[in-house]
Each structure stands twice: as C-alpha cells, then as structure tokens.
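Q: Please design a sequence for this.
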C-alpha cells in the first residue's frame, strides 16, 4: 500500500514538476516574445527618435541635465551640457539671457508643475529651436522633460505668414478706408441679398444716421418701384455670375439723379455693388449733343465750305457752301461717300489742282486722318483762277474736318495791293516833300530821296534805322539854331504816344526854310513831313512888308480924310450960315429967283454936311458906341421926321408901321437913328416922284427887326451883291448920296457894331427891301 502511495506521491510530484516546467516554459516563451517585442519597440522608438524633428532631454531637480548628442549639435555645443548653465559656452550655444530664461522656466516647472514653451536661437546659427517643457510623472526626482523642436522652417513660414497677415490686414484696413471715403455709394449684400455693409456715401445718399442704422432698417438707394426693385440687378448678377450694370433714377438730398448701378457677384454667394452719379454726365452729353447741332448749324451758315468725315472716313456732314463750291449733288452726299470717293467727285467736277500722280496725291491727303496735332494748311490753285485755302484738322475720334475758304478775291486784292504799294513807293520816293516814317519805338523806318537830300546824310546812316534822338543829334549842325533839333524828337513822341499832330518851322544854314509836321499814322507810327517854303517865305516877307506899308498908308489916308473932313466943315458951316441969313432976309428981300438959289445952296450944304459926317463915321469904324436902353419906335420916328422934307419935296407916299413888339434894345440911339435914316435916304435916292416907301418895325422876345422897302427900279444881282461895299454906287445912279455909296456901308457898319445883321433883297423892276435884325442885348 505504501509503495502504491509513494508511487502516487512521486507521480504527483513529477506531475507538478512537469506542470511547473510547462508553466515555466510558457512563461519563458511569453517573456521571450515580450522581450522580442520590447526590443522591436525599442528599435522602433530609437529609429523614431533618430528621425524625429524633436529631441528630448531631462532636467533633474538637482540641476543636472541629460541630453543626447544630437541636441548638443543643435545647440552648437561640442559635447552635451551637464547643466542648464552649460547651454552657454562663450560664443557658442545659447545666449546667456536665453539660458537664464530656460533655467527660470525649469524651476517654475519643478515647483508648480506648469509647462512652458520658448523659442531660442543658438549663437552664430540660423536655426530656431522651440523648447517645450513639462514635469515628468515617472521620475522619482520629478525630472522636467524638455522636448526640443527644430522650428527653423516653420518659424520662417510663421514669420512670413505673420507678415502676410499684417500686409493683408493693412490692405484690408486701407481698402475699408477707401470704400468708406469713396464719394460714391457702395454696399455689400449677404446670401439673402440683405444689406450687410454700406459706406458713408451710401448713408448720406439715403439720409441715414449711420451705417448700422441703415443696415438695420434696410434702406435701399434705389426706389422699390424702379424696374422691378433694387434687388433685380443683384439677383441677375448672382444668377449669371457676372457684373450687371443698370442706369436707374434715385432721389438724393431731395433731387432726382440718374445713377449707373453696378452689382458684382462674389465667390461666396454674396453681392457687392456701387453707384455712380451720371446726372452731370448725362447733362454734359445732352449739352454736347446740342453743341454739336448748334456747331453744325453755324458751320452751315459759314461762307467757307466745311466737310466732316467720321472715324471710318465716310462723309458725315457738309454745309451748303461745300456743295456749291465743288458741285456735289445732294444725292451723293446722302450716300455717305468715303474720303477717296469725295476727292474723285471733286476731280470729276474739275475742282482739284492739276496733279500728275493723282493716286499718290490722294494717298498723301489720306494721311490727314492720322496727322500730328495741329491743323494742316494748303493752298489749292484750281482751273479757272480760283484760289482755295484748305485747312485739314484731325479730330480726336479719328475723323477729319476740312475747311475750304475761297480766297480768290483776297489774292486779287493782294495783287492789287502789291501794285498799289509799288506805285506808292515810287510816288513816295519822287515827292517834292521830304518824308520820313518813325516807328513807335522812335526808329526811322522809311524815308524818300528828298528826305536824305534835304539833310545831307549818308544812305548808310539811314539804313541803320537810327533813333530819332540820334537823328536829331546828327542833323543839329545843319540848322541855324542847333537847339531847334530837339523839337524833332518832341514832335515824333507827340505823334506816336499822344497821337497828336504838331508842326513848326526850321531854318538851315544854307538859307533854306522848311515847314515840318509830325502826323500820327493809323498803325501807331509817325509821318514826319518837310516842305521847302523858302520861296513862299520870301514872298511872305515881301507881302508882310507891303501890308505894313499899306497899313501905314491907310492910317495916313484915314488921318487925312478925318482932317480934311474937319477942315471942310468949317467953310461949309460958314456957307450954310450966310445962306440961312440970306434966306432969312438979313440982307434984305431977295428976288424970287435968288430965293430959289439960296434954297438950293442950303440943300447942297445939308447934303454935303451929311456926306462929310458919313465919311467921318466910316473912318471911325463904329468905335465909341454909347450903350443905353433905346426905344426903337421912338428912334424910328425921329429918323422918319429927319427925312420928311425930302419926302415932301419928292412927293413920296411914305408909310410908317411901328409895332408894339419893336420894344427896346441895348445900343447907341444916335447910331441906330442914323442906320434907319441912311436906309430911308438910300431908298429916296432911287424913287421916282410919287413912289412908295415903307418903314416897318417889330420884334420878338430876343430880337428886334427893322424893314425898309420901296417900289423903285430895283437892282440887278451884281449891284445887289456890291450894295454894302464902300464907295460903290449902283449902276445908273451917277449923283447924290447913292452915287458915293456911303449910306448902306455905314448902316451895315453900325448894325454889326450892335451885334446885328443886315440884308438886302432886290430885283430889277420889283423894288428893294432891306432888313435889319438887332439883338435885345
């Protein structure tokens, strides 16, 4: 039994051992597999670490630093650093301040368990390293694991992206500012086409308070009833995927304006838009259209021919003178002929210049369309003697404007003018007068041969166009008085500047005398003329001497006549006195025949006394008038009474008409009475017995009039013209006062001394009428 039990026990032990071996084998096989897996993981991890862009190092709590060789190479160290302070090694490794910051970060991580991130750059290297530290949880001493990333490329990219972000931010700010400051309304719509953003110009256009208030209220710039509403363009732009442009009216600041509205679809599905105020542009276009129409209307009324070609070189406008000038039919113009065809039509009408190579000539004229700035001008000489001035002006739109001016008449006038100028030049050079033309600046411009000969100057001197001061100094020595030469510049200045004509006289050393003058010309120049008056000067001197002699003789004659008159009056007074004594019977009674002789003596004495008084009056010439207030009617009556004896002797029908309007005048009463008396005696001398004589006086508020008329034989035209001449008796009157002719001259002398006028009207067989007109004062 024991053996069996022992065997069982041994078997059991063996079984346990076998089981333990199996378990051990299983555990060994599993541990081997895990070791292989661990080795594989380690190899993979080592490979990852070798190829990883990051490397790890441990910072112990006691300040020790564990780092791989790769990190030493990254930090630019020759060997791994044992401490954080060892990361700085002179000119290699980190800068001291960066190492100090890393040490501070590690201490903070040890104490507070807070991680850190810091980017450093080793000295002398362009490498950028990011150090990310965190406290380890498996280390017994709480080591800080610091992962180091080579972020050189990502740092540069980040810097680049940061710069790009800054640039884009600046651009966005600038664009936002530009949109905000834009003078035209701008807006942005979201996906639902509602307003999301508007600028200040939009706010002002819709009279909003600010942009947010406009967006919140959805204030639209365009009225809702205009062409389907303000969203029509935005929807069409989003559907078509291209900008949509519309011209719509809008009410801005209370006035109706035309806007060009542009809606632009965006890639995000939203729509942006802006509006341009084209009201002024539309008005400008309308004004330009009206101006073009007015310009064409004006061109159609010009006398010059005008033709306008468009950019396609077809005729778009021509006026009536163009059609008449070139014999262009209206139907041809309606066809819109091309430029070359128009020239051909002109040639067919024989209205182009004669040219040998017409195609080449036409090609040259075609270049007018692309000509340089400014007009091209030509002169065309057409068959038949017509001269045309052609002006070709290229237009900004590529067209051409042609102007044809008929200058035939101007050419003919120019030819006639040239001929006239040649004639004038020849006349100018051959005039007897010395002529010189001085310009406004005082320089001598023109002169004739006589001018040079008078002054005796060289042609070379005159050809230099000397100034008037220089010319005056040159010729001063040729004058009797050299200082008189200064008068020439004064006269030229007066004619050119003051536009006044002045003259004078000058004497030369050779005895010649000249009369000169400076005459202003229409072109601002001065014409200096000199006329030789030597002969007339001599004749004038002779006449002056003769006039002085005649004046002296007249004075002697007047004095002689006055003395003689006074001498004659003395014996005449004695004769008259003795005759009156005889007539009065002082010498006893005279026979009848002797009595008639005495009366004849008295009449002759009276008549002779009157003649002597008249002669004295003529010699006095109306001097010594005594001005008083004269009653003209009373004076006329006294004169009529003085001639009554003669009236009665000749049995004359004498009528006196003195109107109240005759009134009073200022003058010498005695002389006025003598005027009337002389007129009456002059009429009596020509009247036959039983003739008729009239004395009439009237007047107005300013003048008085005296009329003496008779029905005598009258005077012929020649005698009437000489009636007031001294001592000129009318023909057919050999005796009496009329024969001596002193009455009417004395009457005129006294009337003119009173400021009046006297006139005589007479015809043979019709009598004579004398009218005296006297002023009141």
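A: Design:
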């Amino acid at each position: 039994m024991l053996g069996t039990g022992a065997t069982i026990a041994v078997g059991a032990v063996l079984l346990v051992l076998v089981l333990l071996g199996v378990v051990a084998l299983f555990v060994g096989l599993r541990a081997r597999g895990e070791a292989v897996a661990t080795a594989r993981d380690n190899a993979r991890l080592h490979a990852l670490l070798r190829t990883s862009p990051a490397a790890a190092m441990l910072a112990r709590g006691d300040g020790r630093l564990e780092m791989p060789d790769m990190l030493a190479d990254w930090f630019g160290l020759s060997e791994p650093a044992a401490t954080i302070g060892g990361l700085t090694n002179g000119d290699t490794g980190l800068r001291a301040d960066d190492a100090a910051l890393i040490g501070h970060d590690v201490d903070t991580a040890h104490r507070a368990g807070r991680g850190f991130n810091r980017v450093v750059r080793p000295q002398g290297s362009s490498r950028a390293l990011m150090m990310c530290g965190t406290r380890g949880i498996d280390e017994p001493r709480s080591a800080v694991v610091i992962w180091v990333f080579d972020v050189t490329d990502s740092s540069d990219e980040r810097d680049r992206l940061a710069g790009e972000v800054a640039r884009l931010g600046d651009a966005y700010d600038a664009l936002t500012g530009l949109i905000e400051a834009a003078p035209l309304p701008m807006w942005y719509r979201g996906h639902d086409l509602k307003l999301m953003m508007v600028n200040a110009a939009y706010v002002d256009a819709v009279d909003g308070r600010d942009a947010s208030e406009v967006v919140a209220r959805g204030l639209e710039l365009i009225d809702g009833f205009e062409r389907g509403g303000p969203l029509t363009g935005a929807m069409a732009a989003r559907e078509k995927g291209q900008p949509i442009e519309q011209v719509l009216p809008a009410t801005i600041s209370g006035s109706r304006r035309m806007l060009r509205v542009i809606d632009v679809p965006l890639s995000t599905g939203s729509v942006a838009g802006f509006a341009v105020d084209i009201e002024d542009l539309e008005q400008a276009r309308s004004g330009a259209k009206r101006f073009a129409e007015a310009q064409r209307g004006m061109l159609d009324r010009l006398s010059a021919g005008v033709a306008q070609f468009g950019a396609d070189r077809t005729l778009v406008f021509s006026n009536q003178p163009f059609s008449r000038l070139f014999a262009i039919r209206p139907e041809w113009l309606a066809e819109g002929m091309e430029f070359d065809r128009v020239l051909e039509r002109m040639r067919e009408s024989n209205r182009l210049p004669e040219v040998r190579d017409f195609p080449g000539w036409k090609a040259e004229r075609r270049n007018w369309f692309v000509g340089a700035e400014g007009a091209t001008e030509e002169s065309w000489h057409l068959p038949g003697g017509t001269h045309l001035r052609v002006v070709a002006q290229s237009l900004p739109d590529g067209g051409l404007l042609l102007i044809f001016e008929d200058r035939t008449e101007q050419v003919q006038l120019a030819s006639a003018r040239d001929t006239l100028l040649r004639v004038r030049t020849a006349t100018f050079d051959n005039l007897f007068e010395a002529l010189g033309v001085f310009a406004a600046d005082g320089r001598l411009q023109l002169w004739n041969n006589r001018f040079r000969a008078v002054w005796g100057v060289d042609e070379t001197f005159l050809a230099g166009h000397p100034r008037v001061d220089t010319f005056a100094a040159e010729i001063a020595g040729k004058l009797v008085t050299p200082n008189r030469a200064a008068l020439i510049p004064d006269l030229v200045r007066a004619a050119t500047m003051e536009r006044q004509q002045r003259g004078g006289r000058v004497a030369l050393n050779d005895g010649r005398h000249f009369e000169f003058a400076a005459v202003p010309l229409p072109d601002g120049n001065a014409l200096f003329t000199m006329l030789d008056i030597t002969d007339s000067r001599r004749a004038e001197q002779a006449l002056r001497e003769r006039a002085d002699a005649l004046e002296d003789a007249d004075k002697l004659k007047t004095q002689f006549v006055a003395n003689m008159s006074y001498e004659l009056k003395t014996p005449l007074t004695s004769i008259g006195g003795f005759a009156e004594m005889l007539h009065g019977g002082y010498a006893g009674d005279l026979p009848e025949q002797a009595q008639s002789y005495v009366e004849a003596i008295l009449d002759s004495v009276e008549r002779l006394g009157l003649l002597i008084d008249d002669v004295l009056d003529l010699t006095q010439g109306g001097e010594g008038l005594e001005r008083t207030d004269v009653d003209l009617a009373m004076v006329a009556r006294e004169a009529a009474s003085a001639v009554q004896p003669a009236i009665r002797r000749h049995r004359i029908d004498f009528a006196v008409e003195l109107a109240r309007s005759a009134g009073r005048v200022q003058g010498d009463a005695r002389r006025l009475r003598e005027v009337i008396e002389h007129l009456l005696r002059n009429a009596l001398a020509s009247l036959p017995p039983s003739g008729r004589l009239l004395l009439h006086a009237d007047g107005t508020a300013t003048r008085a009039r005296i009329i003496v008329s008779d029905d005598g034989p009258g005077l012929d035209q020649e005698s009437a013209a000489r009636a007031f001449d001294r001592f000129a008796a009318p023909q057919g009157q050999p005796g009496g006062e009329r024969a001596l002719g002193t009455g009417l001259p004395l009457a005129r002398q006294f009337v003119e001394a009173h400021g009046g006028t006297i006139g005589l009207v007479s015809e043979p067989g019709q009598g004579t009428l004398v009218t005296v007109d006297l002023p009141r004062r």
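Q: Thanks. Anything notable?
A: The first strand starts at residue 54 and ends at 59. The chain has five domains: 51-150, 182-277, 283-412, 431-532, 621-775.
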